[in-house]
Amino acid sequence: MADLSQIENSVRSRAGEQCELCAGKESLGIYEVGPVVEPSEDRSILLCGVCLSQIEPAADLDANHWYCLQGSIWSEVAAVQVMSWRMLNRLSDEAWAQDLLDQAYLEEPVMNWAR
User: From CA 30, how far away is CA 103, in angstroms rounded?
Assistant: First the structure.
């Protein structure tokens, strides 16, 4: 089993102690991008409190906050790409989000994970 504190330290280091979606620095926490069989750095991202509070499917979304996805969808970190793609799909009624989805390219394995 993976050492959770080591995973958290690695993800925090990778993220530079800021949210990997919006670059916020308040109330940071690790989020595991599912499906997760076993916790790992590759399937974990660092999120701020605002992103964490809106990331679950039943949560209300502040579309203005999620403009940040215009940068995060191009991340080199697959888990960040996956979460960005999923959030953009939840916001697909917004013209800017649909435009970004149309432009985004994810490698096939990453796209399969995102779906």
Answer: 28
- Choose among 6, 2, 20: nearest CA to 83: 20
Q: What global pTM score does this model have?
A: 0.93
Task: Render pLDDT for 73-89 as a digit per residue (tens, 0 to 9).
Answer: 999 999 999 999 999 99
pLDDT higher than 90, residue 36: no
Q: Which residue has the tokens 């089993």?
A: 1
Confidence of residue 2 (pLDDT cuts 50, 70, 90): low
Residue tagged 């796209």 (tokens): 111
Q: Helix 95-103 to helix 78-90 angle, to the nearest 10 degrees?
A: 140
How many Cα atoms occupy the beta-carbon half-sphere of 31 within 13 Å?
Answer: 24
Rg of the chain's alpha carbons, rounded to an integer?
Answer: 13
Q: Residue 64: helix, strand or coil by DSSP? A: coil
**Rounded CA gap, 50 and 35, in Å?**
22
The C-alpha angle with vertex 105 and arms to 103 and 111, in degrees rounded to 5, equals 130
